[in-house]
Design goal:
Largest sheet: 3 strands, mixed
CATH class: Alpha Beta
Structural class: alpha+beta
CATH topology: GMP Synthetase, Chain A, domain 3
Order of helices and strands: HEEHHEH
Oligomer: single chain
Strand order of the largest sheet: 1-2-3
Helix content: 55-70%
Shape: elongated
Number of strands: 3
Length: 127
């Protein structure tokens, strides 16, 4: 099976959806922030391993606590994933903190600041 086959893409999406639901509704660990999102999941073609990119809205301490909570609940998450999905193998999940949303918000803010600064400069020159 090729890495980007239709079957693999479908499995990635389904694992992402089920994993997000498990994290949102079934884990009771208070360290896991309520605004935790599963951005993407990449399951290996042999279904043995999976990488899950996680995004957390909050400061660095909140992110660290959420990752610790996810690692602590790893066995429960994998068991629930096996129960929800009928796969030949239940993949071993590696959680990776995704900074792309935070980076995008930061860049948008910087662009907005520069745009406002340019507009002020234009207004000063017009006077």
């Amino acid at each position: 099976m090729k890495k980007n086959s239709v079957k693999n893409v479908r499995i990635n999406g389904e694992v992402q959806k089920v994993l997000a639901e498990i994290i949102r509704a079934e884990i009771k660990d208070p360290r896991i922030h309520p605004f935790t999102s599963v951005i993407a999941v990449e399951v290996s073609p042999d279904l043995k391993t999976a990488k899950a990119w996680i995004s957390v809205l909050g400061d660095e301490q909140t992110k660290a606590d959420t990752m610790a909570g996810l690692r602590s609940a790893y066995g429960f998450i994998r068991k629930q994933l096996a129960k929800e999905m009928n796969l030949r193998n239940t993949p071993e999940i590696t959680f990776i903190m995704d900074q792309s949303i935070e980076y995008g918000v930061n860049m948008s803010k910087k662009i907005e600041d520069v745009t406002k600064s340019l507009q002020r400069d234009d207004e000063v020159q017009d006077e």
